[in-house]
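@channel sequence for tomorrow's demo:
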Amino acid sequence: MMKTAVTSTVGLVTILGVLTALREWNAEPPTAIQSVLVFAGILILVSISAYKSSQGSSFSTIWLLVMGPCLGFSINLFVPVVAEITLFSILAPLATGIVGATIIAGTGVLVNGGLQKTGLIPNAH
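structure tokens (generated this afternoon):
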């Protein structure tokens, strides 16, 4: 579990650091490219979730793994629009990250289950 928490934290720091640096350097790509990058990131996280599920990882482990990157994305979305630190400015990114991680981890588990039922991948258990 510690390795998963560290990996998730590295994901949080990396995503938040890169996105913050791009904003500070005024190097943000156009909206269409940003959308493609977000969708690619989600696809990667769902794929990781499905892979970890196929390896027999629990939902809570998968959720913790994707929580870091999801929190990094959500903090990056809220920080530019927050004028001052309030309870909302703290809870909104946290809630968004939790919801995003839950949806992504759940989707990965469901994808893995579907692939196992179709016989495309063997059952890990």
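heads up for whoever presents: Helices lie at 2-24, 31-54, 59-78, 87-118.
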